[in-house]
Design a protein that fits this description.
By secondary structure, the protein is α/β, with parallel strands linked by helices. 20% of the residues lie in helices and 36% in strands. The chain has one domain. Strands 1-2-3-4-5-7 form a 6-stranded mixed sheet, with helices on one face.
Length: 125
């Protein structure tokens, strides 16, 4: 399945397939203007009805998609903000969300909230 690319300020984001068969993770990637690609994970946070959901953004910053689950790369504060804006643009893009592998199976709607884990990205001091 072809995924939609969403670009924001030279940073390009897209949903990826679920990696790691033993511990499945929903993943996305961001390509920086220098061409380097990094991966992060996300999860759906379900509403009380068990169908509708928001998104939780977990660790970001590994170059190997099989290694999602922790933030490895250290980014500048400016890079981190641009990456965050690209991730928000990706998750807010209805067409991109509808192309995720499990989107149709839920028969649910996105409620509009995106929550970033406190330590989702490493930022240089």
């Amino acid at each position: 399945m072809t995924q939609k690319l969403v670009s924001k300020d030279g940073f390009t984001a897209r949903f990826e397939m679920t990696f790691n068969r033993d511990d499945p993770r929903n993943t996305y990637s961001v390509v920086l203007p220098n061409g380097r690609k990094y991966y992060g994970e996300f999860a759906r946070k379900f509403a009380a009805n068990g169908d509708d959901h928001d998104f939780w953004i977990g660790p970001f910053g590994v170059s190997d998609p099989w290694s999602v689950g922790y933030a490895e790369k250290v980014f500048s504060a400016d890079e981190a903000e641009f990456i965050k804006q690209a991730v928000i643009a990706l998750f807010m893009d209805k067409e991109a969300r509808e192309l995720t592998p499990d989107a149709k199976s839920y028969g649910a709607k996105f409620l509009g909230s995106i929550e970033f884990a406190e330590d989702w990205i490493r930022i240089a001091d």
